[in-house]
Structures are given as structure tokens and as C-alpha cells.
Design brief:
The complex is a heterodimer of chains A (about 110) and B (about 120). Helices cover about 0% and strands about 55% of the residues of chain A. By secondary structure, chain A is mainly beta. The relative contact order of chain B is 0.32. Chain B is mainly beta. The chains are: A mainly beta (about 110), B mainly beta (about 120). At the A-B interface, strand 4, strand 5 and strand 10 of A face strand 5 and strand 10 of B.
């Protein structure tokens, strides 16, 4: 079955760049997503990328996709304390099944 | 525009009881997804409804069930509650057959505590 893996924790200093990594197993994954969950809240869609793309940039966020290695990363430039949250990677395919999520990476930003 | 709304925010039950959780999708969205977020386990897919029909189901026992109403709102029912059902239950909605993949929009969840 599909599996999505992420490291559990990342700590960075304010102003530095953060890189959150994700690997997935399903070679038919077509759409890959990054969601953010702040304490006590639901998930907020940050950005997404199609499998035929290598990179997508959206303001401070850069998504890199290595389809050969099934590796996805999210880079947050100039990380702020407000970026502290849990970040989830998710994937799905063109069959429109529900998204499969990773276990989430907790990002801690130190002032 | 109102987002996905879930009720209640918190629910406390005892083992063996039944719980009913409710979700209203974003206006115009016809698909509703339910996920369970147990402590330390990430998001586990429960159920997907689209146009009133159950389209897919995750690896959960039959005591987890639900339905989608004609107005596209949804209920999740959990029968014979067990302690390990304690979790945050998240509802998400999306529009039908989005051309750019399924972008799910989540509610804030219902925190279910089973004592």
C-alpha cells in the first residue's frame, strides 16, 4: 500500500532556512501536497506540486520533487516564529482516492 | 466564505457509548473526507463521501460509519466506543473532480475523549 514518511522533528533559528523532507512509496503518485497544522487547529493547505514538475516556488516556500527517488522537500526561507507548527506531506494519484498523509514533522523555530 | 465547520469541538464519552460527529463542507464542495488523528500516529484516513455515496473507506472496523446528506454535510458515527478511539477527528471537503488534484480544506476537528 501507499506509505509516506517524514522525520518527526526539526529545530531551526529564526531567520534561517528550514528544509522538511518527505519520502513516498507509491510510484503512481501524481499530486503531492504540504499542509501546516498549528496547535489546536485543522490542517491548512500550504502548497502542492504535480509529479511532472521538479520545483515550485511560492513566496518563502520552495517545493522540490525528485520523482526518481520519490523524495519531496519543503524549504521555508527566512523562517519566523509563526512558522512553528506541524508540517504534513501528502500524496494522491489520478484515481481520486483520499490523500495519504505522512506522520508530520514538528518544526520548532527558536528566537 | 465560511470554511469547513465541525461540531462539537470537544466530546467526552465513556467506553461502550456511541459518538456522533458532524461536518459542514465549504459551500459548493460535494466531497467530504474524515480522518482520525490519534496522538503520535499522524492522520489516518477513515471515510470519503461524494455526492451522497461512500466512495472509499480506510482500514477501520465497521463500528466507524457515516453518511452524507443531500446538502453535502456529513456525520461520522462511532459505535461501541473504545479507549483507543480517543483522537482528534478531522473533516475535510473538496470540490468534485478538481482538475488540479484533490485540494482538501480541513475543519478544526472534534476532539473525542473516551474515558
Amino acid at each position: 500500500g501507499e506509505d509516506v514518511e517524514q522525520s518527526l522533528f526539526l529545530s531551526v533559528r529564526e531567520g534561517d532556512s528550514s528544509v522538511i523532507n518527505c519520502t513516498y512509496t507509491d510510484s503512481s503518485s501524481t499530486y503531492l501536497y504540504w499542509y501546516k497544522q498549528e496547535p489546536g487547529a485543522g490542517l491548512q493547505l500550504l502548497t502542492y506540486i504535480f509529479s511532472n514538475m521538479d520545483m515550485k516556488q511560492d513566496q518563502r516556500l520552495t517545493v522540490l520533487l525528485n520523482k526518481k527517488d520519490k523524495h519531496l522537500s519543503l524549504r521555508i526561507a527566512d523562517t519566523q516564529t509563526g512558522d512553528s507548527a506541524i508540517y504534513f506531506c501528502a500524496e494522491t494519484d489520478t484515481g481520486r482516492r483520499a490523500l495519504t498523509f505522512g506522520s508530520g514533522t514538528r518544526l520548532q523555530v527558536q528566537p | 466564505e465560511a470554511g469547513v465547520t465541525q461540531s462539537p469541538t470537544h466530546l467526552i464519552k465513556t467506553s461502550g457509548q456511541q459518538a456522533t460527529l458532524r461536518c459542514s463542507p465549504i459551500s459548493g464542495h460535494t466531497s467530504v473526507y474524515w480522518y482520525q488523528q490519534a496522538l503520535g500516529l499522524g492522520l489516518q484516513f477513515l471515510l470519503w463521501y461524494d455526492e451522497g455515496e461512500e466512495r472509499n473507506r480506510g482500514n477501520f472496523p465497521p463500528r466507524f460509519s457515516g453518511r452524507q446528506f443531500p446538502n453535502y454535510s456529513s456525520e461520522l458515527n462511532v459505535n461501541a466506543l473504545e479507549l483507543e478511539d480517543s483522537a482528534l477527528y478531522l473533516c475535510a471537503s473538496s470540490s468534485t473532480y478538481g482538475e488540479k488534484g484533490e485540494k482538501l480544506f480541513f475543519g478544526s476537528g472534534t476532539q473525542l475523549s473516551v474515558l
